[in-house]
Amino acid sequence: MPNPLVDVPEHIHALLSRLHAESSAQESALSAADFANRTFDEVMQDKFIALDQDKAQFVYQLCRAINAKHVVEAGTSFGVSTIYLALAVAANTSRTGEVGRVIATEYEAAKAAKAREHWRECGEEVLATIDLREGDLRETLQSDLHDIDFLLLDIWTPMALPALKLVQPHMRHGAVVVADNTIGSAEKYKDLLDYLRDPANHFSNMTLPFHNGLEVSVYLPPKSDS
Ligand SMILES: C[S@@+](CC[C@H](N)C(=O)[O-])C[C@H]1O[C@@H](n2cnc3c(N)ncnc32)[C@H](O)[C@@H]1O
């Protein structure tokens, strides 16, 4: 299968393959027994739950297609999908010399520290493109959002709609929202999907047939709202 990440250094390809493999191995090893005596947050504290590699490549391709320069990622974990977003933004801005950034969000301090390690391993271009906001995104996304081109919702499902509502007022016309697992977790995403599909909120929507589904929505407010 062709990989859209062209002109990306070999050490980043190698890192991404390693991180995706670690994430998949962790997820396959998870079972109901893990949750028997521990809370969801306790079990997930050391888990990647990274976006699948084909979805991450698709997200990169989309960000290149729409020339995304200002991106928000709701749910960063160990920073795997963030690397794809940062590579896309860096490539888009390098053509014009403009400044772009990926606003990443993570409330587990240990995960944030590990994410920074991975970004350092990628190199200065990736590291410098990312603004990691540590803490609960319902607070960290309250300010300093401008002209958002792209929002990735890869977060525990109850947080997806609050994240969208915080970012939406700062989205440009034609901004793209991607939400993961919208078929597999359709019930848990009901509030998000109802909101996206309500014509009053001005999104056009498609569910793409990736594993467990991937929702791609485009924000198209009428002139007076944008
Ligand atoms: C599915 S993982 C993100 C995976 C990441 N996008 C990747 O591809 O590597 C979701 C992450 O969201 C974080 N999270 C959950 N609720 C949060 C909140 N309210 N604020 C910030 N981060 C949160 C979790 O700690 C978890 O690491």
UniProtKB/TrEMBL annotation:
UniProt keyword Heme present: no
Keyword entries, A-Z: Methyltransferase, S-adenosyl-L-methionine, Transferase
UniProt keyword Membrane, yes or no: no
Molecular function GO terms recorded: O-methyltransferase activity
Coiled-coil regions, chain positions: none
GO biological process: methylation
Similarity-based family: Belongs to the class I-like SAM-binding methyltransferase superfamily. Cation-dependent O-methyltransferase family.
Protein name, UniProt field: O-methyltransferase
Species of the source: Penicilliopsis zonata CBS 506.65
